[in-house]
Design a protein that fits this description.
Blueprint lengths: L8 H9 L6 H14 L9 H14 L3 E5 L5 H9 L5 E6 L2 H13 L6 E5 L2 H7 L6 E6 L6 H11 E10 L16 H12 L4 E6 L5 E6 L1
Parallel strand pairs: 1-2, 1-4, 2-3, 4-5
Antiparallel strand pairs: 5-7, 6-7
């Protein structure tokens, strides 16, 4: 799971203890991901994010969802669980290896019929989708330099009132450090773009590594 160092550890533990926990399948997926992927396991969302994603999909009444960055499938399961039985999630990723784990857990959790995996660069996958307002909900959790492209392509296809959730927007608390390198500068630019975008309303939540909720006007 992602390490979070900008929230007091005792507060983070308290918040997690008072959030509906993941079930056995998700716990097993988290354990297998940690065992198989090593340091890359940090790409998996935290349990509280999974619970929140399911709730947001349910509250929004979404039927058609898109995910950019599937990894081993934790977030896609949480999104799919919030969709109705005839709902559809398009999951975009580039790794056959990691998504092979996801496919097994989609079957185990009974959501495989709701998910269509599209392997390849997400920008190309999104651009190939019909350019019409047909997406109700989206989750972006992939390569940070690509966020702006993913955001623009999804926003063009998002229904008015639709919701985009974007992960890692606080960069482990380094987002305000002017000397921070890595993905911090590009994420800061993305955050500024969203905050000034008149097409949407947004809120950046200090959940896990930072989760921004963006609603199309």
């Amino acid at each position: 799971m992602k390490a979070v160092n900008f929230v007091d550890a005792s507060i983070a533990a308290y918040a997690l203890a008072h959030t509906s926990p993941p079930d056995e399948a998700l716990l097993d997926l988290a354990e297998e991901t940690a065992r198989l992927t090593g340091d890359a396991a940090g790409m998996q969302i935290c349990p509280e994010q999974g619970t929140l994603l399911t709730m947001l999909v349910q509250i929004s009444g979404a039927r058609r969802a898109v995910e950019v960055g599937t990894f081993t499938g934790y977030s896609s399961i949480c999104i799919a669980r919030g969709l109705p039985e005839d709902g559809r999630l398009i999951a975009c990723d580039v790794s056959e290896d990691w998504t092979s784990v996801a496919r097994r857990y989609w079957e185990r959790t009974g959501v495989a019929h709701k998910i269509e995996l599209r392997l390849g660069p997400a920008a190309e996958t999104l651009r190939a989708m019909p350019r019409e307002e047909c997406v109700d909900f989206a989750f972006i959790d992939a390569d940070k330099p690509g966020y702006r492209v993913y955001y623009e392509e999804i926003l063009a296809r998002l229904v008015p009132g639709g919701l985009i959730c974007v992960d890692n927007t606080l960069q482990s608390g380094r987002i305000t450090d002017p000397d921070a390198g890595g993905n911090v500068p590009v994420m800061r630019e993305f955050n500024d773009l969203v905050a000034s975008d008149g097409r949407v309303t947004s809120v950046l939540l200090p959940v896990a590594d930072g989760l921004t909720l963006i609603r199309k006007r």
